[in-house]
Amino acid sequence: MKIGRFSDGGDPFWAVVDLEARTIDPVEDSIGSWGPIVCADGPGALTRSGAQRPLDGLAVLAPVEESAKVICLGATYAKHVTGLGVQSHDKPAGFWKHFDALVGPEDEIVYPEISEGFDFEVELVMIVGDTLDPGDPERSILGYTVGNDTSLRDHQFGGSVTGMDMFTAKSAYRSAPLGPWIVTRDELGDGTPDLGLTLSVNGETRQSARTSEMSFGVDMLLAWADARTPLRAGDVVFTGTPEGVGHEDGRYLQPGDVVEATIEGLGTQRNTIGQRTSSTGGTA
To answer: What are the Fumarylacetoacetase-like C-terminal domain coordinates in residue numbering (predicted)?
Structure first.
């Protein structure tokens, strides 16, 4: 099942997506209400309105509510880590992303004026549907979606007196696309999904890998995050990116670039990089 978040000009709402029919069927209440039900009893237990409507003409939003925690895990693909000069390791790195950094799968990406090293990172993203069961962490996964964990590399590496400014690097205003929708876990089977993920800039493939290349399983990543902050329905967990990012060859994103991030079976996001702006909306 595909569950997305949409707007018709009013308040955002959740809906089940039928891509073949190009329709949606709205779902009442917040993800905190129905997420645990879907995790426990499957997508068939989800109550829909029955008032189907056309998908076309609706704004496709990032599939997340404003109350969600957005957690990013890194150093999860060996080749990418090696390309950044990091030696072997036995656990991921973690950091926060502010909610205001997220945009939808078709929205313009704001290019922050404070950076000269704006980079891309296609990632498998887990959407949490329930509190974590220590004996079966995977059961708390509602589903998966596509993320582009854009990074300001000049701030990530050497951006502060401590050497890394991860807040600035990872939470630039309206910089990180998420979506198009959540594909429920039952469609992908047990364990870490084995899905192809690619990212292109202006039609040129820059990243291409498989999610099965991750050094850690999704259950371990969830448990690692939950040990640091309790996860709940609606929380978002980025799982890291493979090799091929712009930092490796210095080819960073520029205003006007078109970025397409795709994960097999989950969908594609297509975003244009806007002109350099400040977080307050002024043009540099």
So the answer is: 69-273
Give, rounded to a whole angstrom, the gap between the first and last alpha carbons of the chain.
43
C-alpha torsion angle, residues 269, 209, 225, 133 (rounded to 10): 90
Mean pLDDT on 109-138: 95
The residue type at 233: A
Q: Domain ranges for the chain, please list them.
A: 64-273
Asked whether the predicted pLDDT for residue 281 surpasses 70, the reply is no
Model pLDDT, residue 283: 46
| Amino acid letter for position 251 | R
pLDDT band at 284 (very low <50, low <70, confident <90, very high): very low
Q: Which residue has the higher pLDDT, 157 or 212?
A: 212
Rounded CA-CA distance 218/237 in Å is 10
pTM of the model: 0.93
How many whole angstroms separate alpha carbon 109 and alpha carbon 165? 21
Instruction: Judge contact between 97 and 149, C-beta under 8 A.
Output: yes
Backbone angles phi, psi at 270, to 5 degrees: -130, 115
Cα dihedral value 226, 84, 62, 224, nearest 10? -10
CB atoms within 10 A of CB 176: 28
CB 223 within 8 A of CB 181: no
Which fold is adopted by the domain 64-273?
Fumarylacetoacetate hydrolase; domain 2 (3.90.850)
Concatenating the DSSP letter of every residue in 190-233 gives SSS---EEEEEETTEEEEEEEGGGBSS-HHHHHHHHHTTS---T
Q: Shortest CA distance to 120 belongs to which of 236, 281, 261?
A: 261
Alpha helices in 42-142 (DSSP H): 78-83
